[in-house]
């Protein structure tokens, strides 16, 4: 929070290291830090997995997280969760950890920058046709766009773009506003009240991570579901 | 009053109006959605999980209109292109 001035609305403006025209801003640096943290953390946990009772508490945490995600994916998409778990799970865990770490001093979440959230939204934008084509072929997927009549084609295409924009701006706006309001309050009333806004920001961050993952899943699932075809069996 | 003052007045006033109006509509919509979801949960407690999840998705959709207004007013306040233009002159 201290490394950003009040006027900056995104951590992109904070240049940490510069060499010629190569700049490393705070968004990049914190994204790399998070990636390293997640990679090394999950490597450390999964190094010694054991099926017997009495395993480490970190394995327990990881199992809870993975099982929660699998169950949510199964319920929302009504399909086998293992196909979507890598993509959706990565999005969820990254955004969640990035938003929760706001409690650390000197940390600015990379999700408070429109570049990061736009990158996530573009990943979803690319993943929808990929999964759709994997599931029902190019013809079957493209048939979705002309579904009731051909005249719906421009509206379907517009919908794809506008929901990508909405995904990016929603996450960015939520996290950025939480940061900004906390910073402004710290400048105005630096006692106790900013703590409650911070707590509210934490809650918002967790909910936003959940919502981003669920919305991405809903878009992907609606792209893979065949129209009027077979309903995949439901397993609870 | 010179141009700079006018830009400042209009920017700050517009930021206030934007976030004010932008908060009213989504607030009414979210209130309706939550009330409806709560009465559905009261009628069918078994479906609480599904209703809550769909409620969250719907709230996220409704909320994004408010977020757009927030982003616009933040841009007006902190990264105003007109203000930068006027101050550079």
TrEMBL record, chain A:
Superkingdom classification of source: Bacteria
Annotated GO MF terms: proton-transporting ATP synthase activity, rotational mechanism
Xref: Pfam families: ATP-synt_A
GO terms, biological process: proton motive force-driven plasma membrane ATP synthesis
UniProt keyword Ion transport, yes or no: yes
Keyword vocabulary terms for this entry: ATP synthesis, Cell membrane, CF(0), Hydrogen ion transport, Ion transport, Membrane, Transmembrane, Transmembrane helix, Transport
Topology of the protein relative to the lipid bilayer: Multi-pass membrane protein
Cellular localization per UniProt: Cell membrane; Membrane
Transmembrane regions: 26-45, 84-108, 114-134, 181-201, 207-226
GO cellular component, one term: proton-transporting ATP synthase complex
Function field: Key component of the proton channel; it plays a direct role in the translocation of protons across the membrane.
HAMAP family reported for this sequence: ATP_synth_a_bact
Family statement drawn from the similarity comment of this UniProt entry: Belongs to the ATPase A chain family.
Name of the protein this chain belongs to: ATP synthase subunit a
Gene expressing this chain: atpB
From TrEMBL, chain B:
Topology with respect to the bilayer: Multi-pass membrane protein
Site-annotated residues for Reversibly protonated during proton transport: 63
Gene Ontology molecular-function annotations: lipid binding; proton-transporting ATP synthase activity, rotational mechanism
Membrane-spanning parts: 6-28, 55-79
GO CC annotations, alphabetized: plasma membrane; proton-transporting ATP synthase complex; proton-transporting two-sector ATPase complex, proton-transporting domain
Domain V-ATPase proteolipid subunit C-like positions: 13-76
Primary location group: membrane
Record key words, sorted: ATP synthesis, Cell membrane, CF(0), Hydrogen ion transport, Ion transport, Lipid-binding, Membrane, Transmembrane, Transmembrane helix, Transport
Places the protein is found: Cell membrane; Membrane
Superkingdom of origin organism: Bacteria
Signal peptide, first to last residue: none
Protein family: Belongs to the ATPase C chain family.
NCBIfam families noted in UniProt: alt_F1F0_F0_C (TIGR03322), ATP_synt_c (TIGR01260), PRK13468.1 (NF009998)
UniProt name for this protein: ATP synthase subunit c
Chain's gene name: atpE
């Amino acid at each position: 929070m201290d490394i950003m001035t009040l006027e900056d609305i995104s951590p992109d403006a904070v240049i940490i290291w510069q060499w010629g025209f190569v700049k490393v801003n705070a968004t990049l640096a914190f994204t790399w830090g998070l990636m390293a943290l997640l990679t090394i953390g999950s490597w450390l946990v999964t190094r010694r997995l054991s099926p017997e009772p009495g395993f480490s508490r970190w394995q327990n945490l990881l199992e809870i997280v993975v099982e929660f995600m699998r169950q949510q994916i199964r319920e929302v998409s009504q399909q086998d969760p293992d196909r979507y778990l890598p993509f959706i799970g990565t999005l969820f865990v990254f955004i969640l950890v990035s938003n929760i770490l706001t409690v650390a001093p000197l940390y600015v979440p990379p999700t408070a920058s429109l570049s990061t959230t736009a990158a996530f939204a573009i990943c979803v934008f690319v993943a929808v046709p990929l999964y759709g084509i994997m599931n029902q072929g190019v013809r079957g997927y493209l048939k979705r766009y002309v579904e009731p009549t051909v005249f719906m084609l421009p509206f379907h295409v517009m919908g794809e773009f506008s929901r990508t924009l909405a995904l990016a701006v929603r996450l960015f706006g939520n996290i950025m506003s939480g940061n900004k309001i906390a910073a402004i309050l710290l400048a105005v009333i630096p006692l106790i009240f900013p703590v409650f806004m911070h707590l509210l920001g934490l809650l918002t961050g967790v909910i936003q991570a959940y919502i981003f993952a669920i919305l991405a899943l809903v878009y992907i699932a609606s792209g893979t579901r065949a129209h009027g075809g077979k309903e995949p069996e439901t397993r609870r | 009053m010179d141009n700079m003052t006018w830009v400042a007045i209009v920017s700050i006033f517009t930021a206030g109006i934007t976030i004010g109006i932008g908060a009213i509509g989504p607030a009414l919509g979210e209130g309706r959605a939550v009330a409806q979801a709560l009465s559905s949960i009261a009628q069918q407690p078994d479906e609480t999980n599904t209703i809550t999840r769909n409620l969250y998705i719907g709230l996220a959709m409704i909320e994004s209109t408010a977020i757009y207004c927030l982003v616009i007013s933040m841009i007006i306040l902190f990264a105003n292109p007109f203000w930068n233009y006027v101050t550079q002159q």
